[in-house]
Structure formats: structure tokens, C-alpha cells
Amino acid sequence: MKKLGLFIILFSLGVSIQAQNKKWTLRECVEHALENNISVKQSELDKELAEIEKSDAFGNFLPSLNGSASNSWNTGLTQNITTGVLENQTSRNSSYSVTLGVNIFQGLRNHRVYQRAKLSQLASDYGLSKMKDDISLFVANSYLQVLTNKANLEVLQSQNKVTQEQIQRTMDLVDAGVLPRGDLLEIQATDATEKQNIAVNENAVKISLLSLAQLLLIEDYENFDIEDEGYEIIDDGITAKNISEIIASAKENRSEIKIAETNLELAVKDFQISKSTYMPTLNAFINYNTRESDRASGIETIIDPNDPVTLSDTPIGVVGSSGESVFGYEPNILGLRELDALPFTEQLYLNDGVSYGFQLNVPIFNGFSTRNGVKRSKVNIKRQEFLLEQARLDLESTVYQAYVDAKGAYKSFEAAQKALESQELAYQYAKDRYDVGLTNAFDFSQSKVRYDNTKIEANRAKYDYIFKLKVLELYFGIPAAELKF
């Protein structure tokens, strides 16, 4: 058991160390951002709302079925429904009904509302796609910024090692009397400057990593790190394409244009919906209702059981031959009494009824609201047409700018590589001269600074070109998840 417990502890410790040493690749960062970014989640909620709106629109075609029930008490001077006499009483009444309604004609409104809901769902899909593209580029830019800072830090650390070696060698030569002490001080000053720059760049790396971790919503940003190897320039021929071909592909595939086109279709559909208010509407209904009360179901006469009949005081006729009055018998009524209320279910059965019919509504005049609503819809169509045209112009300008930026970044990258090669030769030449005492420490230090700055500029140009190249590929229609780095 002790060995098993020790094994579990060691295994857990190994997993923890492995998790802390995990380095995120660019693809992992993009995928994580698309799953967890708040803006993406909000766009996904918009998509869910569009699906609900579509379900609502479909429900307009279905009949409506509604039930109602009420139970009320009346207290005070009210008419007795049995005797018709006003009495101070408390009565209870309940009623129940079920109504089925069907829209027969609404000026094609339901059909157009359903079409609009489908367009709205399509617009939300395009919006989500655009949001994912924007987040992917944002993550890629932040990621490449970390790579740039790390590469610059590596350059400074590598060159400082050379400076440390030069300090030791210069110190030996100064002690031997070969070089003046001023050369040692110059090299030591260079070392101090380089260490200061290293500290600044270490801070830049931490800040860029923190920004990327916050973008990815990663809480353990202290242990967050990225994979900083294997990112080279991969051009699948996008820069060799004609700018008109890239612009045409962007207009066909980019979500910005599709969103603007869908918004125009929505405006047209809103115009059609507003026009349907000019049309009459026809509805059909059927209603079943019943009621129940706690009041008496009627009045019953009370007859004397001992003397059920009595001779009437009023004659019922006259004998024709003698003129004698004829009297009859009538019930011997002692009084009246109210009957108890009928059972609940029996009242529901006896008091039920059905009503059905049609309802036609014809708009005649409503204070210009219908006409003004149609006019507003027409204005909105024109607005969306302008926005669509503006979106096309903006996209064309943006793509052209991205194309020029990619071309310029490539030229800058080539120039930086050539400058690095030349500066590396110059630095090596200065180092060799310094090693044999043909140049002083100040000149060697200046050559080394120029070489360091050239390597840093080469790193910046490399990752800047990678990013701008991927932006151009994205505009050409390559999905963000399929971009190669």
C-alpha cells in the first residue's frame, strides 16, 4: 500500500510538472480562443436567438389553442338568479372555455416573416464566421509578437555571452599590458548596456505572454508559455496572384460582403412585411364554453302532506241551467323552498355551449402609421444598398492595402536578411581585428551593437511578413483554421 501511494504521488507530481511545462502551439491557441472567447460566445448566442426567431416564425402557421378558467365570488345586493329577487347574498360562479383559432389570410405576412427569420439566421452565421476570423487573426498577431520578443531576447542573450568572453579575454590582455585599461572599461560598459536591454526584453516577453494568456482567458498566466520553434515563412503562391483575382475572391467569400448582402435582403423583406399591413386579415375560431354556480338550481313548492288539496275559494265555472258556481280543488301549498345546486359535473354538462365563426379585419385608416411604416422600410432599403456598396469599397481598399503590405513586408524581409548577412560579416571582421589588437574596444562595441540591431530587425521583418502573408491568404478565402505557419 505504501508503494502504491508513493506511485500515485509521483505520478500526480509528474502530470503537474508536465502541465506546467506545456507549450502552446499557434493552432492550439486559435482553437482555444474560438472555444472560449467571450465575443465568439456572444456571436453563438446571436445564432441561437436567430434559430428561436425562425421557430417563432414557423409557429405563426400553426393554429392557436387556448384555454381559460375563472372562479369569482360576488357579495352584496345582487339579484337571486333563481327567484329574480334582489338579496344581500354571497354567490360563487365559475366558467371554463377552450378556443381554437386559425389565421386564414394575413396578406402573406406569416410567409414573409418566416423568410425573414431564415435570412436572419443566415446573417448570424456570417457574423459568427467573421468573428472567428477576426479572433484568429488577433490571436495570431499576439502569438507572433511573443515570438518576435523571444527571438530578440535570444539574440541579446547570445551576444551577451560573446561580450562575457570578450571581457575575460580583454582583462587578460590588459593585465599583460597589451591593451589599455580603457578597452576593458568600454567592454564592461557594453556588457552593462546589454544586460539592461536583456532585462527590458525579458519584461517585453512576459507582458506579451500575459496579453496572449488574457486573450485566451487562461488564468494560470504565470506558467503559460508558447512553442517558439518551427514557424517559418510558408507562401503557397498567394503573393504571385494578381490583385484583381484576390479582390474578386474576397468579395465572393468574405463575411463582410455576405453580411451586407443579407442585411439588404432583410430590408427588402421588412418592406414586404410592412406592405402586408395594407391587406385585410381573415381569422376563424371555434369556442367551447361551460359554467357552474353554487346557487340554487330552482324553486320547489311545499305541499301539506296531511292535507294535500283544498277547495278553491275562486269558482272555476258556473252551471248553465241553474247558475250555480262550481269550485275546484287546488294544491294545499305551505310555501316555497330553493333546491340545492346541481353537482359540479352535471352543471358543466347542462350549461355547455359552442360558438364558431370568422373575423374579417379591414384596415381603413390608422393615422398614417401603416403608410409611414412602408416609407421607413423603403428608406432602410436604400440605406442598406449604400452600406453594401460601402462594404465592397472598404473590402477592396482593405484587400489592396493587405496586398501592398504583404509585398512591402516581403521586400523588407529580404532587405533585412541581406543587411544581416552584411552586418554579420562586418561584425566578424571587427571581432577578428579586435582579437589581434588592430581595433579598439569602442569600434568593436559599435560593430556589435549594429549587428545586434540588425538581427532584431530581421526577426521583426520575418514575423511581420508571416502575419501579413496570412492576412492576405485569409482575404483570399482560406479559412483561418487552415492557415499554415
Instruction: Bin the helical content.
Output: 55-70%
Percent of residues in β-strands: 15-25%
- Termini gap: 50 Å
Strand order of the largest sheet: 1-2-3-8
> What is the gyration radius calculated from CA atoms?
46 Å
- Average predicted confidence as pLDDT: 82
Regarding quaternary structure, how should these chains be classified? single chain
Number of strands: 8
Structural class designation: alpha+beta
Outline: elongated
Largest sheet: 4 strands, antiparallel
Q: Give, in order, the helices and strands.
A: HHHEEHHHHEEEEEHEHH
Given as residue ranges, the uncertain stretches (5+ residues, pLDDT < 50) are: 1-19
Count helical runs: 10
